DNA-binding transcriptional ArsR family regulator (Diaminobutyricimonas aerilata), 120 residues
Amino acid sequence: MVNESGALDGVFAALTDPTRRAVVRRLGEGPCSVSDLARQFTISLPSFMKHVHTLETHGLIRTVKSGRVRTCHLDRRRFALVEDWLAEQHRVWAGRTDRLEDFVTRSDSESPTPPLEDLR
């Protein structure tokens, strides 16, 4: 669980940057060479490579070098961690809002109206 939590922290940290999110979005359409990806941004290639390295370090993408071309691929397995965490949070909050709704609707229909003096 600790390793999974650390991996989840890394994924969220990697996705805090808009350039990295744009790379992930683009790679969702299919693999792309680093040079083609870098052309979309107004940063230097070495700076762009740092983003690629961060994404690769946290398991969001993998790169394959063939000759002089390095191609990036989205690694969808890491996103399962995020999906599982978000699903768990959704269940927790849905349960809380359901209990709140039950409390509000039950207290309206089942509790007697308090005397006017008690409302003051």
DSSP finds six helices and three strands in the chain.
